[in-house]
Amino acid sequence: MINASTRLCCLIGHPIGHSVSPQMHNAAFRALGLNYVYLAFDVSPKMLADAVAGLRALGVAGFNVTIPHKVAVMRLLDELDRSAERTGAVNTVVNHHGVLRGYNTDLHGIRRALEGRGPPILMPALVIGAGGAARAAVVALIDLGFRRILIANRTIEKSLALAEIARSLGALVEVLDLDEGRRRAVECGVVVNATPVGMYPDTSATLLMAEEMRRGMIVLDLVYNPPKTRLLKEAKRAGAVPVSGLDVLVYQGAEAFKLWTGVDPPIEIMRRAAIEALEGDRGDEGR
User: Fold this and answer.
1) Which alpha helices (H) appear in the chain, and where do they start and end?
2) Are residues 130 and 207 in the same domain?
3) Do 221 and 269 share a domain, yes or no?
4) Coil, helix or strand for 8?
5) What is the domain extent for residue 39?
6) Would you state the pLDDT for residue 194?
7) pLDDT digits over 245-286, tens only?
8) How far apart are CA 19 and CA 274, in angstroms?
9) Which residues contact 33 (CB under 8 A, 6 or more apart)?
10) Residue partners of 271: CB distance under 8 A and separation at least 6
11) What is the pLDDT of residues 178-200, one digit of tens each?
């Protein structure tokens, strides 16, 4: 029951209507009997600084950060964990007695989603996008052993900034436009979609078709709503290995949960709550 002692955690982003993080975290809080609650707040870019100052003033336990604030929020924080320093992006903030410390649990989530699948590290990896999620994807791929990274994006300035991060970690990097990225996807062992393309409600959109993929490659879509995106359906049609962004959502959420509470989270309860929330929103369309 919510009372005067309830600790608040939340999500800030723009938009946030697609998020199932509240259902996922609140299910975990209930399962463990923790007096916490998780809410989601739509915060426009021009209100970001005010929102962060307000969360600090309210004494929240912590908060998640999603599109488009993962990079911009960094300048508003007091400290950065190494995960945030390496990626140049923050998706989780912990409030320790008024000191806001930024983390990147996306990095953990992407590594967990890919490790154990035998990613072919001697081949290049293609990351589509260059925002905060793409930064985590590139660093996670390098951590897994990839040394050749292709970055495909519409905005060259963002791509070049991400390429510098990858090169600082020892990777060989090529910056491509989206058309060249599509042409060269078949060269790669892993493809990661780190853009919102294919996210509900525009579920018919995809950046790659089956004919642009090859059998056996791993295709990770960081979009999780719906869990089976058009990109993942095309990957399956090509004989590739589809990996849902739902896996990343759960693993990164579990890491954030532990940072806020100090308690190991019930991962399968979180996963089940996220799936039920997605299915409940749109019935079969969300599957």
Assistant:
1) 21-32, 48-58, 82-87, 105-114, 132-143, 156-168, 178-184, 230-238, 245-261, 267-282
2) yes
3) no
4) strand
5) 7-104+247-286
6) 97
7) 999 999 999 999 999 999 999 999 999 999 999 998 654 333
8) 9
9) none
10) 24, 246, 250
11) 999 999 999 999 999 999 999 98
pTM (two decimals): 0.93
258 assigned to active site: no
Segment holding 79, helix H or strand E: strand 79-80
Q: What's the pLDDT score for residue 119?
A: 82
Q: Which residue type is seen at 86? A: R
Asked whether the beta carbons of 21 and 252 are under 8 A apart, the reply is no
**Rounded distance between C-alpha atoms, residue 144 and residue 138, angstroms:** 10
95: its two tokens: 């409030």
Q: Structurally, how many domains does the chain consist of?
A: 2
- 257: in domain: yes
Residue 157 domain-assigned? yes
Decide if 25 contacts 40 (C-beta within 8 A): no
**Catalytic choice (70, 228, 236, 258):** 70
Cα gap 246→285, rounded to integer Å: 15
